[in-house]
Amino acid sequence: MASGLKSSWLSRWCRRGGRLGGWSLAHLLAFMIALGAALSGVAAPERRLVVGVYDFPPLLSMENGKATGFAVEVLREIADRHGWQLSFREGSLYELTYQLNHGEIDVLPGVLVRQPRVESSGVAIVDTPLVDDWGVIYSAPNAADVQSLSELSEHRLARLDSDWLGGLTESQFNSVGLGVTWSSFPTNESMIKALLSHQVDGILFSHLFGDYRAGFYHLKSSPLMLSPEPRSFALSRQSAALKPAFERELLRLRADRASLYYEALDRYFNTSFVDKQRRNSVMFMSLAGVGLLLALLILSRYLNHLVDRRTEELSETNERLSELNRNLDLIVRSRTLALEKSNQQLAHSNTALEQSRTDLQSSLNSLRDMQSQLVEAEKMSSLGGLVAGVAHEINTPLGIAVTSESLLDEKLQNLVTAYRQGTMTRTDLERFFELAGESVQILKGNLQRAAELVQSFKRMAVDQSTLERREVVLTDYIDEVLLTLRPQLKKHDVKVRINGDKQLCWTTCPGAMAQILTNLIMNSVCHAFAENQRDRRVEIEVEREERGLRITFSDNGRGVSAEVLAKLFEPFFTTRRLEGGTGLGLHLVYNLVTQSLKGRIQASSEEGQGLSFVMHVPELGMFDTGATVDV
């Protein structure tokens, strides 16, 4: 009766539908279906999950940039059912565990359920295990089987560096007093190599990895099961809400024997590593055979082409020989005429060559004269630098003296005016006396400094214009040379330090020494330092040797290459040809050291390590011609 009432109510509602605002039952149903579809589309947004992948075949690994393995296939099956989009990030287990704890990845497959780094992080662990796992001791092919833990005492075992299962087993062995020596290795392959080379007596593997590889290396596995641990999915905090979905899907897959779970389990864990290697070897041999066949075909066609070409060339050669035989007399006469003509041309060429040699010798003499003039010009440029130093250094004390004199004159005029007007007081007179005393001291000090500079510059100028020998205090003389170069050193922010005996006296040619140091310092200032280098240093060290004096000059610039170092003392060689460099500075240094000072000079450098010059010079007598130093 209830169904009859419902039918009559529905029929009456349908008959009245056309009058309710123009909506029929069909229109209303279509609207509700469309609204439901729109709402379902809004309510189910696409979920993207970042999955961590570490090297643990056959459970999971990355091969040629693609994630593969049993866990990856199960995860893809679950993601397809829920419409999740997956992306994979490769790393070590330690790195990926850290990223999972900090929410940088969403899912980490295959983790041990009681792993401390995972347990303490507060992330979600799926309760239904992905696959069961435990530790197994593997030994070498010729070793005895391990039947009990007591047999491992006094043995050497290996485990992975970051393997929590290995660390747990090690602590358990220590707690029961087993005398086992443990060694850690970075990879599973390195542990297997250590076992096969008898560096260790056994290795601790997860049975997932060990059974997969043991057959290939013929390793023996012990019947002992150490620390059984299920492996499951770990979810980050932001993806913890997906845990029920993972639970349902894993239970569904494991309950259905025909599901992808058992098909993948059989494919990954029942197919040995040896079969995989054999298939790869067969594939490689097949590809190699195909390549060899193609190479033989190409070689055969190439040889046929060579034979055809050689045959054609032999035919052409035979035809040419026949033609030459028929015209032998004509060829001999023509070659005789050509030989006579060649002899005449050779005679003319010899004459022209002799003239060219004469011209080249004349040009060489001119170049040598020009080189001598340029070297002299380079020497005079040192005097030019000296003049610039004189102007700058003397201007400073003279400027101070002029300022002090102007102030003293102004105060004197003021005192005279006050005296004449009768307004001068005792205090004014005492202040003037005090100011006059200070001004006189300033004038005296700066004028004395200017006089000393003039004397120093006069000695330097005389030294650089002559090669007279005299005894000098070497470090004091080097200070005088640096005084003339102070404007350039300040301009380029270069600091010079002198090391050596402050009382060392030496008989030498001061002028040559000054020109050598000037050219070396200016070479460093202009060429050694990069524009952005802040710490710019030059060091000069003097040291007495058994047979002479050793002077070491070095900078901390960018150095030179071996190719540039080999040409460093050649005349006209410069790395700044278009920037005004003449290439004569270091050539002049070489000539002054070897000829004027009778010594030797050597240069050494590496790119980025600065440039050093080492000079060995003898002590020159006041009147003799000097002796060459042995270095």
Number of strands: 19
Please report the distance between the alpha carbons of the first and last residues. Answer: 129 Å
Radius of gyration from CA coordinates: 49 Å
Give the helix level as a range of percent.
55-70%
Query: Regions with pLDDT < 50 over 5+ consecutive residues?
Result: 1-23, 36-44, 625-631
Largest sheet at a glance?
A: 8 strands, mixed
% residues in beta strands: 15-25%
Please tell me what the overall shape is: flat
Q: Give the helix tally.
A: 18
Mean pLDDT equals 78
Structural class: alpha+beta
Tell me what you see in this structure.
The chain is α+β, with helices and mostly antiparallel strands. The protein is 57% helix and 17% strand. The chain is built from 18 helices and 19 strands. The strands form 5 sheets. Strands 5, 6, 7, 8, 9, 10, 11 and 12 form an 8-stranded mixed sheet that branches. The protein has a 5-stranded mixed sheet with strand order 14-16-17-19-18, covered by helices on one side. A hairpin with a 2-residue loop joins strand 2 (61-63) and strand 3 (66-68). The model is unreliable at 1-23, 36-44 and 625-631 (pLDDT under 50).
